[in-house]
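Possible regression after last week's pipeline update?

I re-ran a chain I had predicted before the update to compare outputs. Posting the input and the new output here so someone can diff against the archived version. Not blocking, just want to make sure nothing changed silently.
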Amino acid sequence: MIPLLLQDVHRRDDKYCTYVILWDCGSMSMLRVRWFQSMSAVVFAAALSLAGCSIHKQVVSSTDIQVKGQQQVLWKPDYAYVYSPEQIDLSSQAIFGAAGDLLQWQQKPRRRLRLQAAEIQRHFRVRLASRKSFRNDFATVNNDTYILESAKLPLPLTYSISRWTPLRNGLSGPVIVAFDGHGDCGGECTGKVPERMFQRNGFGRQLVQRGWSVIGVPTAIHKPLSKFHVTFDYPLIWAALATLVVHQATPPSSTPRDLIYLGNAIGGLTAAAASIIDPRSMATVTNGAFFPLEFTRHHYRIKDHTLCHDMRDFASYVPFYALLYPLPLMIQVGEEDGLWMGHGPVKSSDWFSGLPRGATSDETVGAALLLERLWTRTGQDFSLAVHPGGHEDLDVSRADQFLRPLLPGNSKRHTLSR
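New output (post-update):
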């Protein structure tokens, strides 16, 4: 007999029910499914019965989830949400052994993500539709619009990137590929040119003013790509499309690694995924993209893009980020970010599920310290930068300070930032 854990949210009374279904299907492989719909456990059991499986169903628990007296609302995905039966986690050898043990551990999961990214890209045809250029008082701006066509898209996707090159005091060397968060578009982006990062005080604009060339790339595109999300995670989908377009827009330089991936909030997870799959990546900076994954799987929902932060193959974000080793890595988090430690329960609203508790120190700082160990035991560059801002408040000054040693001819080592 094979156990299957199903956790259901009943829309009528907001009860959170845990089912255990036992089935015997002979050679059928085990699946772990989390399905957020009132009848999903019954439907799944019926499907197994039709397949000739012996079914035994048991309700283990049924409790109300409450947040400071308010029931928590957990919106469901529009389709079955299937998790890998063996989620990726670090091995004890990767943690306590030598650097070579970590590199050996990386091979299988990194190859897995790169194959998934290649499969996503295989479905797309990309063509340049238009190119517009202009200058402001400090930069040359090129806005390139591409058309992405796929049989899995309801309509061709218009996908625009914006490259800003400083007019004065430009830094020679790598280009920063930047992703913003949901706040750039009110939650549902369409593929248009990222705007917020290049507005006054935007992090992209500030980086350009400090001499960096920056390419702003869309992210948080949900509805047009929902068919891909049945199989692949959104951060990986966005990363696969970004690298596909950026490689076409910026041919490789004489330096094998010539791109820095930097992202804000959900854009931070996209930046990390892009760095993992792109051999041209030389460093990664994320902000607001490091929080307890398993906790948010159970309790964190945004109404119109449920679970878009999830990485279904991974047990937590620690093994996901560990695939970036030994590239320089900065993880920024804001003290006012509700997903960082030091915050209590959050009430639900018409668009947010609420949270029954805050993240704990071991889920946040403890996880970051484990990553720090992996990098610093061999002298590689890692920084956990805790700033006074919020979830989407990337600290440009700290990012600039961390990245400047990567410029040609600069051999200065990084210092850890707390």
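Follow-up from reviewer: compared with the archived run. The first strand starts at residue 2 and ends at 10. Marking as no regression found.
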